Amino acid sequence: MAYYPPPPPPISGQPPQRGMSTGAKVGIGCGIATVTGFILMMGGCAVLILAAPDTADTDPGAPAPAADADDGGGEGSAEAPAEESYVVGDTVSHGSWDITVTSVEQGVGSVEDEFGLTEEPRGQYVVMELTVVNTGSEAAYFEARDQVLMDADGAMYEYDIPASSGLDWLEKINPGTEATGNIVFDVPTDFGLDHILVNGEGSFADGVRVDLKG
C-alpha cells in the first residue's frame, strides 16, 4: 500500500487579494479622462470649422464690392457724357482734316461751274461752302464724295460733280494748307434741309453730324 505525505499546512495571514490594484485603477481612470477630453476637443473644432464662413474663393486683397449706382440721378450718380453737337460755322476734326461748313443755301436754280458753264438741277440745288485744312503729314485729296447730305427722314444725297467746284480729286492739298470750295447737291423741290455728315476718314467711316437748320 502506497504512502502519500499529508498536504502542507496553510500559510498564516490574509488571503491573496483578487482584482486590480489601486494604482492600475488610477491609471485606467486617467486614460479614460484623457481620451474623453480629446474627443470633446475634436468635436468643438469641427463645430468651429462648420460655422466659419467660406473664404476659399475670396481674395483677401480684393476691394469690397461697390455699391449700386444711384439710378435716380441723385448726388454722386454718373451721368453719360453729352454727345457733341455741331452747327454751321463750327470746325469738325475728323481724320486728317479740319472741316468747317461756312454757309449753306437752299432752293438754288442754277450754278456756274469752274469752266463758266451753267449747271441746272433736276429739282433744286443745295449749295454748301466748306473750308478744309489738311492736318496730316502729307499732301492729300479732300474727298467731296464722302460728304453726305441728309433730310429729316434719313434719306441720303450725294454731291453733284459738275456743279461742285474747288474741292475735288484733281488737286491735292498740302499739310497745313487751307482750301475752300462749294459742294452742290441736286435734291427734290420739296426737300427738307436737316443736316450733313462731314467725313475726313474715308468712305467706310461714319461721318460727323452738322445741323443745317435754323
Summary tags:
214 residues, five-stranded mixed sheet, alpha+beta, 1 helix, four-stranded antiparallel sheet, globular
Question: Which sheet architecture does the biggest sheet show?
Answer: 5 strands, mixed
- Report the C-alpha radius of gyration, rounded: 50 Å
As a percent range, the share of helical residues equals: 10-25%
This entry's quaternary arrangement is single chain
Low-confidence stretches: 21-31, 45-50
What would you call the shape?
globular
Question: How would you concisely characterize the structure shown here?
Answer:
With 214 residues, the protein is of the alpha+beta class. The chain contains one helix and eleven strands, in the order αβββββββββββ. Residues 21-31 and 45-50 have low confidence and may be disordered.
Description:
The protein has 214 residues and is an alpha+beta fold. Helices cover 14% and strands 28% of the residues. It has a five-stranded mixed β-sheet with strand order 1-11-10-7-8, with no helix packed on it. A four-stranded antiparallel β-sheet has the order 2-3-6-9, with no helix packed on it. A hairpin with a 4-residue loop joins strand 7 (148-151) and strand 8 (156-157). The chain is globular.
